[in-house]
Amino acid sequence: MTIDVSRARTTAGIASLETAADVLAACDALAAISRSDSGIDRRYLTPEHAAANATTAAWLKAAGLHSWQDGAGNQWGRWCPKTLSSESEAPRLVIGSHLDSVPDAGRYDGILGVLLGVAALTHFQQRAEREGAGLPFALEVVGFGDEEGTRFGATLLGSHAIAGSWQPGWELLEDEEGISLGEALTAFGLSGQSAASASLQATPPLGYLEVHIEQGPVLEAENLALGTVTGIAGARRFAVNFAGQAGHAGTTPMALRQDALCAAAEWTLAVETLAREVQTGKRADMPDHSLVATVGCCELRPGAVNVIPGAAALSLDIRALDDAQRDRALEELLHQAHQIAERRGVTFRCEQTHAANAVACDEGLMQAVDIGIAATGQAPFRLPSGAGHDAMAVSHLCPVGMLFLRCERGISHHPAEAVTEADVARALAALIASIEAVAARYSC
Ligand SMILES: [Zn+2]
Predict the structure, then answer these.
(1) How many angstroms is it from 386 CA to the middle of ligand 1?
(2) CATH class given for the domain over 234-355
């Protein structure tokens, strides 16, 4: 299999990305690059990935900017002020996000952040040509090839590659058609070796700034367009089981039951109660209010209308900015689960299925983003990210910062994902002012 980029819309009729309207038109153009006719579906190392890279490169080149694809399939663009003596050795600030999507995706998750980065580089390039004004560092934009992990099951492959944390074992991961990641890299003209060599550990950038839709309802509830991200929550996930005794729903007296669902239900409410108490400040011993905990799945056995549930299989997802506090909350919940199980005569066991530590945003970059937001006339507002982002992997390479942009009703990973042109214009102005704030601090 070879990758055909003929589906690339080149510049899709957009000369270059200068305004919010251009950026939104470019989001529409990338949304048309999908393997499905009924929705957006753009996965790592596919013809659609190649086409999205080619289209993004065309917009960068149309603005007179250098663009290239790295060994992991991430697409880059660069603007270097003429005042910097050696282009390749110049310090650089990287702006970025991802160009891949989940199946049946919205058109802004990731993509908007990349294209706002392209617009910011275009702004500084044009301003330098017009006024000769530069920056004390080069600017780069990156469109990561894989953030969502929808093809091979492992997430953040593109950002792990540049952070130097590409794992050779990943090449054995297979997609739903049985194609390995190693084979997909080869078909894309790359290899495991080239992906590993995309690492920037030898020459780390001075920082990474990511613009992203919030994917949650907080900014909208606050009636604010923009927010400074304080950090990305660390998550732990568990497969949880309560096992009791299935029995006849008509003949077993209530006092003699070992109902697994009732135990699971009581514990699910305990999970909600603890997380609510922490979020509303009722737990003085847990001052990080970012804690969220969710029981998202519940499967009953045997699952019949006239049978007492004998087993309940649940999931638990628990996240917070403070890993230690999250783990204390988790311990408390597991203790409660054992108590509930004992009282109800059922057994409880759980197994961890995922663990990732929280990532704190850099204070200097947060201050720059605050200044960027203030420059748009909005009071700075800080909030944590409960969702994972490329900045998590990039934090192992350099300091990271993030600017969140309000999205309608917090909807994401869905075709109904929506932003307003006015908010995108504010985000672009805030990004440009944030970059200037980083430059002001850098020059001091
Ligand atoms: Zn995203």
Answers:
(1) 12
(2) alpha beta
With b for 16 or more beta-carbon neighbours within 10 A and e for fewer, the 164-198 pattern comes to bebeeebbebebeeebebbebbbbbebebebbbeb
Who contacts 107 (Cβ-Cβ below 8 Å, separation ≥6)? 27, 28, 30, 31, 40, 417
Ligand 1 centroid to residue 441 C-alpha, Å = 28
In the predicted structure, residue 22 carries a pLDDT above the cut 60: yes
Distance (angstroms) between ligand 1 centre and the Cα of 283 equals: 32
Distance between CA 274 and CA 295 in Å, rounded? 13
Ligand 1 center–CA 147 separation, angstroms: 7
Q: Give the pLDDT band (50/70/90) at residue 12.
A: low
CATH code, 20-232+358-443? 3.40.630.10
Q: What is the pLDDT of residues 37-83, one digit of tens each?
A: 889 999 999 999 999 999 999 999 999 999 999 999 999 999 999 88
Work out the pLDDT band at 11, boundaries 50, 70, 90.
low
- How remote is the CA of residue 156 from the centroid of ligand 1, in Å? 10
